[in-house]
Amino acid sequence: MGADELAHVRWIAGGTGAGKSTVTRILAERYELPVYDGDRAEARYAGRCTPERQPYMCALLRTPKEERFAGRAPEEVFRAMPSLHGETFGFVVEELLASPADRPVLVDDFRPLPRELAPLLERPEQAVFLLPEPGFRRRNLAARYADPAAARATYGDVDPAAALAVRVARDELWDAEVRRQARETGLPVVDVDGSRTPDDLAADLAAAFGLSSLSAARAGRPTSSSGGG
């Protein structure tokens, strides 16, 4: 497979709590683009995993929520991540290849690693890895799971603070791996600390992704509302 087959895809990956979904939504609304949601995709392809080809994914699916973070060492949780071993990236590529390629598609997914994406890009700017500053991530995730129901849905019936601490430490290991691979492959990393608005980040990504021509095309036809600007 050549990079030209996925030349229409723009990848927004990186670390959890960096605001990937927010920036993706802004771009999707502003340029009227479809989004490939990595979390929803995983729910689709999880049932296709086998112990022989995706052992880490199958082990994760068998593990109760209560045992995925609480009481485990961050290094252990990190090493058990299916995405670290590239187990499900093939499913993502298959689905993207089967989708229309007549306009750009935004991929919102933390799972792809630089070493996986590099061979699929015509130019490095087709992908970006957003990596949150640790304090920024902790604040974002704490707010996300402040609702007990949301915390229970993710961590089960355990102390959410303890589970969150392990998750944050695991994610810092993930970010370090992403940063290392990005350096080796020459792919762009953007550090996110909350000092810039999501709109500012979206504008930078739009320029890097080459979406300005889409903006010019839209200017020639009426829009229903101001939308995302």
TrEMBL record:
Taxonomy, superkingdom: Bacteria
Gene3D superfamilies in UniProt: P-loop containing nucleotide triphosphate hydrolases (3.40.50.300)
InterPro entries: P-loop_NTPase
Name of the featured protein: AAA family ATPase
Source species: Nonomuraea salmonea
